[in-house]
Amino acid sequence: MIIDAHSHVHDPVADHIALLDEAGVDRAVLFMTRPHPERAADLTSLRREMATLHDRLHGRDDQADTYRAASAELDAALAAWPDRFIGFGSVPLVLPDEGIAAAVERDVVEHGLRGIGELTPPPGQAARIEPVLRAADDQGGLPVVVHGAAPTTADDLRALAALARRYPRVPLVVSQLGGANWMDAVELVRETPSMYLELSTASIIFAVRLAISEIPERTLFGSDAPYGDPVLARTTVERVTASGEIRDRVLGATAAALLGLS
């Protein structure tokens, strides 16, 4: 089974399904989203969508009421394509600890979702995900996905590793290969058994090759669609791996085990 471990709701959803079909991807982990860059028809409209993303990544769009529309989009996509998408739910990091615990139970576990993410703590504030990890641990070790590219810093990655060691039952996935800090991300994941590294949107091909070589059992194929492309992401993995067990792990077997699908 080929599993794209990182994607966001598209508008329209059928366009996403077409991309997965073209890439030969069986299933995709699906996160909610506020920005929709795939809607942009020109630079002006793309700037508007990316401004929403910028605010989100810097903690300026993390209120509970902003989650409702995005959650409804996610629910609609999951209902329309239950055999293709694997839903993850997010929680507002501004909630108090008890509110986060309640949201994880209500909006993730009772909602039938498989994990939590993609979390986007503001730069320098990775420690804000600790209540989420604690709640995920209380729920039996739900996987948690955290944004890894800019504005996430190398210090944030080190803080995430420290938290992962504190909650070893919780699989903690760093997305986008850690962005510009990919070498730090590879080292930290290699040294922290409960951490995983998702490989989307890498700008340097040998970063993907080295990550898979260093941590073959904890690297995950992902596209970060619509920001990345499933065809290109799969081709990248296949370009730097030989046919066989390691490639199969990266393209889906590891994700399947992590998600309880195998």
Characterise the protein shown here.
It is a single chain. The chain is an alpha/beta fold. It has one domain: TIM Barrel. Helix content is 45%, strand content 13%. It is built from 10 helices and 8 strands. The protein has an 8-stranded parallel beta sheet, sandwiched between helices. α1 links the parallel β1 and β2. The radius of gyration is 17 Å and the shape is globular. The termini are close together. The model has no long low-confidence stretch (mean pLDDT 93).
Write the layout of secondary structure elements.
Blueprint: E1 3-8, H1 13-23, E2 27-31, H2 43-57, H3 67-80, E3 85-89, H4 97-109, E4 115-119, H5 130-138, E5 144-146, H6 154-166, E6 172-174, H7 182-191, E7 195-198, H8 205-214, E8 219-220, H9 230-239, H10 245-258
Parallel strand pairs: 1-2, 2-3, 3-4, 4-5, 5-6, 6-7, 7-8
What labels would you give this structure?
262 residues; alpha/beta; TIM Barrel; 8-stranded parallel beta sheet; 10 helices; 13% strand; globular; Amidohydro-rel; carboxy-lyase activity; ACMSD; lyase; Metal_Hydrolase
